[in-house]
Write a sequence for this structure.
């Protein structure tokens, strides 16, 4: 698993990458009450704001970590956004992206580096 | 940079694992277990809030009548008619009738006890001193903490410390001995639930807070849940839902101005802004504060502009507070709309991230009040 400075986790599964936010991020955001996901089939570019998360406290944007096509979204979050708090790095995943180029994955932190990053 | 002030319960908050944030010059707990859990606990059982940052002020003078007569020159409320041991909601207004702050005041027999918002307390105290002294002494009560115990179990919890607590009705105000400490207790609060506000010596605050928190039904509650609770209860947050640009009637606070101070009343007017305030009550306002239920799941927060139609047109109003209502189970908001669009059931639109989403105007409160009247 790889991690971004925006507190996303990326898990490669063949030519697709699953993306969510880390447990640390979910805890910082507090109770999540709404998640707006991109559309399946959308072509996105790195750093596009493609997910909106609303917690009881505030709204936050999630950026696309890679260029590519959204191939699947986690529909369960629409009715149960609290899944992100319950299982941020499992059932609370956001979307799957098929990157046009997988090599930028190497730019991102591994678990040890992310742990250092969040202190 | 100014050092944040701390309430007498600061150390206890930190010990209980609160997330502390700066608020109105104080380091205050925004959450303990989590806003959603704290909110639901308060509605189901009882929550303990530290509201010691709010301003407590004693107004004293030659007689209660003299104090009341003087205070009526500052607020549009019936002060003289407020019975001993009773509390009332009040407003400070400017000369245009705009709301400078909202407050609570209680007749304590030989003095008035006033509680004002933390962010406004300096200005409020200066305003009261300028208007009332020297005949009425304005004394900030700096050495007392203020706790709120709110929720359906508040009565059983507090009457465990003093049985008299159960005899109080909504807006009663008494001095109660709680655990050997002289507490000034009102049966009121700002969550829409039954409950109490307890003023007590700062030095005794932590001990009483721990005693209350030791009860199975009581959990500590932060400012985050305080905000979602008051929003669901349809209560105004000063600086957001009401401010200097808003008159009482359009804010839906006309009820707070008793008949005796209105046109034709025995003590009509005689307060700042009386002309425009009474005219707006008589003629009806052009806009009104309303409850709003966004149609989807996305919260709509302060600043979201409101439109009459799904496309085109200028904004007709704005959301003044909004968020997720944990008890409602969906987004709730308040804002201002022209009276023609203010009837419950009316559909309007809020613009969120460039999209206009439907909103239904809703009656307030969103959650029925649990007051013991």
């Amino acid at each position: 698993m790889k991690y971004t400075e925006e507190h996303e986790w990326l898990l490669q599964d063949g030519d697709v990458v699953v993306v969510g936010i880390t447990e640390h991020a979910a805890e910082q955001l507090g109770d999540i009450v709404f998640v707006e996901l991109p559309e399946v089939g959308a072509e996105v570019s790195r750093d596009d704001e493609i997910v909106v998360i609303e917690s009881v406290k505030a709204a936050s944007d999630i950026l696309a970590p890679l260029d590519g096509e959204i191939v699947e979204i986690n529909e369960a979050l629409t009715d149960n956004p609290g899944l992100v708090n319950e299982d941020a790095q499992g059932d609370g995943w956001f979307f799957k992206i098929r990157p046009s180029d997988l090599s930028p994955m190497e730019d991102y932190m591994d678990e040890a580096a992310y742990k250092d990053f969040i202190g | 940079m100014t050092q944040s002030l701390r309430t007498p319960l600061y150390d206890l908050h930190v010990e209980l694992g609160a997330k502390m944030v700066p608020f109105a010059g104080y380091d205050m707990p925004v959450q303990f277990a989590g806003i959603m859990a704290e909110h639901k606990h308060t509605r189901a059982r009882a929550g303990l809030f530290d509201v010691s940052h709010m301003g407590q002020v004693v107004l004293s003078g030659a007689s209660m009548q003299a104090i009341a007569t003087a205070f009526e020159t500052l607020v549009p409320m019936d002060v003289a008619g407020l019975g001993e041991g009773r509390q009332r909601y009040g407003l400070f207004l400017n000369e245009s009738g705009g709301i400078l702050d909202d407050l609570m005041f209680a007749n304590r027999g030989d003095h008035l006890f006033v509680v004002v918002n933390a962010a406004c307390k300096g200005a409020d105290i200066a305003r009261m001193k300028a208007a009332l002294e020297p005949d009425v002494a304005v004394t900030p009560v700096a050495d007392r903490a203020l706790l709120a115990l709110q929720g359906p179990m508040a009565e059983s919890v507090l009457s465990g410390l003093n049985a008299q607590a159960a005899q109080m009705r909504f807006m009663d105000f008494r001095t109660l001995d709680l655990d050997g400490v002289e507490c000034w207790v009102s049966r009121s609060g700002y969550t829409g639930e039954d409950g109490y506000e307890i003023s007590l010596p700062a030095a005794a605050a932590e001990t009483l807070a721990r005693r209350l928190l030791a009860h199975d039904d009581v959990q500590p509650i932060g400012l985050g849940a305080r905000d979602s609770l008051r929003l669901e209860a349809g209560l105004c947050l000063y600086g957001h839902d009401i401010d200097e640009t808003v008159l009482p009637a359009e804010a839906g606070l006309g009820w707070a101005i008793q008949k005796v101070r209105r046109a034709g009343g025995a003590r009509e007017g005689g307060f700042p802004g009386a002309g425009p305030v009474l005219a707006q009550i008589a003629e009806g306002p052009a806009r009104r504060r309303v409850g709003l239920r966004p149609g989807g799941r996305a919260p709509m927060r302060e600043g979201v502009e409101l439109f009459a139609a799904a496309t085109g047109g200028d904004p007709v109003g704005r959301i003044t507070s909004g968020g997720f209502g944990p008890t409602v189970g969906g987004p709730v908001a308040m804002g201002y709309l022209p009276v023609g669009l203010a009837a419950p059931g009316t559909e309007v639109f809020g613009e969120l991230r460039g999209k206009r989403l439907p909103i239904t105007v809703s009656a307030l409160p969103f959650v029925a009040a649990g007051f013991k009247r």
Observations:
- The mean pLDDT of chain A is 95.
- The longest strand of chain A covers residues 49-55.
- The domain at 2-100 of chain A is CATH 2.40.50.100 (OB fold (Dihydrolipoamide Acetyltransferase, E2P)).
